[in-house]
Design brief:
- It is found in: Cytoplasm.
- Monomer.
- GO terms for molecular function: translation initiation factor activity.
- It comes from Ammonicoccus fulvus.
- With about 210 residues, this protein is of the alpha/beta class.
- Among the domains are: about 55 residues, Translation initiation factor 3 (IF-3), N-terminal domain (Ubiquitin-like (UB roll)), CATH 3.10.20.80; about 80 residues, Translation Initiation Factor IF3, CATH 3.30.110.10.
- About 45% of the residues lie in helices and about 25% in strands.
- Strands 2-1-4-3 form a 4-stranded mixed β-sheet.
Amino acid sequence: MRLVGPAGEQVGIVRIEDAMRLAREADLDLVEVAPQARPPVAKLMDYGKFKYEAAQKDRSTRRNQTNTVIKEMKLRPKIDGHDYETKKGHVVRFLKAGDKVKITIMFRGREQSRPELGFNLLKKLADDVEEFGFVESAPKQDGRNMLMVLGPTKKKTEARADVQAEKDRRAAARDADHEAEHQHQAERRAQAAAEPPKKKKKGPADNMDPDIDL
């Protein structure tokens, strides 16, 4: 078999008995890594450590892996300004979260003869959200609809980090406000405790004999 050393160095072609002897002397395992090769390839390694590191790497890969999510937003060619701003806000939110967005312009009736309306609307939307996304798939006609796909400028992991950072910032601001309010109340209580009690002013009835019948 062809033997590879623990550091990846080529030992050469050796007999199985010699390879096993070298493994015992180095207190390592003899692991066949390419049985289909001619001759087969084996490596000297700490198999337990190898399995542990492989499992750690696999967990890290799964943890960092992000699933591509495609959101969809539908618009009409003659959408009014208020609805446009609302839908644009949703698109920005999706892009900031690291998701792709498929924009669908739906044509009805005579609108199908005016594809430029949809194209101009998609171009306007792409320009309005260029800070957060880019045109990944240019506008194209698909039956009665016109489609465009926007991709986020930030990766999913970066977007999540930004969202978490914003949450942490808001939480820190709330804690600071609560601490300031608590300190203010403590100072007011300390100030009130340090002030001498106010004397009650005597009225005319306070100097009268209580036995006098008025």
